[in-house]
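Annex B. Sample input.
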Amino acid sequence: MISDFEFRISDFSNTHPGHQRSKLRSKHISGLPEFWYNEFMETAKLGKRGQVSIPKAVLEQLGIEAETILLVEATADGSILLRPAGVYPIELYSDARVAEFMEEDQISDDLREKIRKKLKES
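Annex B, continued. Sample output.
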């Protein structure tokens, strides 16, 4: 719920090295510690059922569309890494289709004999 959030925007460019041209923002949610982020970051809230909605601006920036399968990884520093999964179609072969491949892979007796003669000559 939006009313649960309180935003404070402050300029900490002199006190926080590395943030000279970026304004830091703080966010406070009642009952939780205050946290800081910069103007280039988006925030998301973890729902009661463990679901997170990724901000639309981030999805558009990355070109990720709805229903995209994402890989989720917990990193050593406690971060959560999301990456689009590579999904490729695969073909499952029936026994009949495998038999067709095996038949096409056979060589004729004439060709086999020609190959044997060439190998003996070399």
